[in-house]
Amino acid sequence: MKIADNKVALIHYTLTNATQDVLDSSEGQEPLAYIHGHGHIVPGLENALDGRSKGDRFSVTVSAQEGYGEHDEHLTQSVPRQMFSGVDEIEVGMQFHAQTEQGMQVVTVVEVADDTITIDGNHPLAGQDLHFDIEVVDVRDASAEELEHGHVHGEGGHHH
Predict the structure, then answer these.
(1) In angstroms, rounded to a whole number, what is the distance separating the alpha carbons of residues 121 and 133?
(2) Are 22 and 73 contacting, i.e. CB atoms less than 8 angstroms apart?
(3) Is 34 helix (H, G, I), strand (E, B) or coil?
(4) pLDDT band at 88; cut points 50, 70, 90
(5) Would you say 17 and 131 are in contact if contact means Cβ atoms under 8 Å apart?
(6) How many CB atoms lie within 10 A of CB 48?
(7) How many CA atoms lie within 13 Å of 33's alpha carbon, on the beta-carbon side?
(8) What is the pTM assigned to this prediction?
(9) Residue 24: its pLDDT value, please?
(10) Which of 11, 64, 117, 122, by CA, is between 20 and 30 Å from 144?
(11) For residue 80, what are the contacts with CB-CB under 8 A and spacing of at least 6?
């Protein structure tokens, strides 16, 4: 069976950056399970998996545009420290949920000053090409319930 829309794919992966630092991996864990064609993984990786079969192993470089997008300077802004009332210590690298016009968004603190905090709403991997080493562990039809719920059940997926 080949990976196609509405199929469940289970993959092992290792994600590295341009300097070959490992950013994420499923090594030693259950494989990642997703429903193909539903936008649950970055578009470039989903495109590279299309038509693959159980047992396939390959490497692919996903451009920033097909990954987490280019870094958008408009998503970085300085805000008054009082917007973080109730948080005693604010440090670079901390992440917070912020309500935006586009809904809830994760922002990362990139600079701390006396009166202002600079936050970045870009995904931490925005602007980076992503290098994946992939092994397709299994491919199967998604159940009607999985399609209705929008996620995989069982191995590598959601457990109700």
Answers:
(1) 28
(2) no
(3) strand
(4) confident
(5) yes
(6) 20
(7) 20
(8) 0.82
(9) 96
(10) 11
(11) 115, 116, 117
Q: What is the CATH number of the domain that holds 78?
A: 2.40.10.330
Q: What is the pLDDT of residues 72-85, one digit of tens each?
A: 999 999 999 999 88
Give strand pairing partners of 105: 98
| CA–CA gap between residue 127 and residue 143 (Å, rounded) | 36
**Identity (one letter) of the amino acid at 144?**
A
> Is the CB of residue 42 less than 8 Å from the CB of residue 65?
no
Q: CB 126: neighbour CB atoms within 10 A? A: 16
Which helix (H) or strand (E) element contains residue 108? strand 103-112
| Look-up of token digits 């440090």 | 91
In a shared domain, residues 115 and 37:
no
Domain tally for the chain?
2
Average pLDDT, integer, range 9-13: 98
Is the residue at 12 inside a domain? Answer: yes
